[in-house]
């Protein structure tokens, strides 16, 4: 397992002004970087890749969909825009040299049907994601779709739903990003949820129950890592924490206060906490 950090803690788009964070991550003890893929184009991610190559960090990315580009939509035009957006994600991820493409690239965050997902939504999503997985496999990448808690989406919330969706998509390059923050809300037993997902976990997000610095809250990271290791998982273990510095993201995730004092504290304390939790696993 490699230890990584998601840079959504710093910016929704990591440009040259944030590239110094790559060195900070390496100094703090991370092996891997996960970049948010919310805007820009392949040329932007190619520049980030060149800097990451110099630092010596492997990388993945996280991406989302939008209300006007939703692959699960009943509207054919919106659904086609959603498929085009999934193709854009893969183009950018390839330019980055990403091993994994994770995140909630299923349905827009904060958009609700006020009911659970319909059979039609699931079928439309699975068709789009199977096609995406075919292309990801051709480019040497794995997909890791992220279930979110019920306050952020109605599409996928639990490990049981996620496992069923993996089976519906039915492609070896398609799996799940398991996030301990969302699971802390939705699962009765995180260890049982992890066992149920098994080999479908392609990326592990280690996120504290308040989305602050891992190791300062309620999540039992040593037990989580032991359970994930028992599934045979050997992929990226990525620290994710959110701050209030990104207004759009803060609003979407309901972060109204600072959850860590500064990025250096988050990087160093987060790395130390998860490294310590990884040792027994």
Automatic annotation (TrEMBL):
Keywords: Isomerase
Limits of the Xylose isomerase-like TIM barrel domain: 22-254
Pfam families named in the record: AP_endonuc_2
Organism: Pseudooceanicola lipolyticus
Protein name: Isomerase
One MF annotation (Gene Ontology) recorded for this entry: isomerase activity
Cross-referenced InterPro entries: IolE/XylAMocC-like, Xyl_isomerase-like_sf, Xyl_isomerase-like_TIM-brl
Classification via SUPFAM superfamilies: Xylose isomerase-like
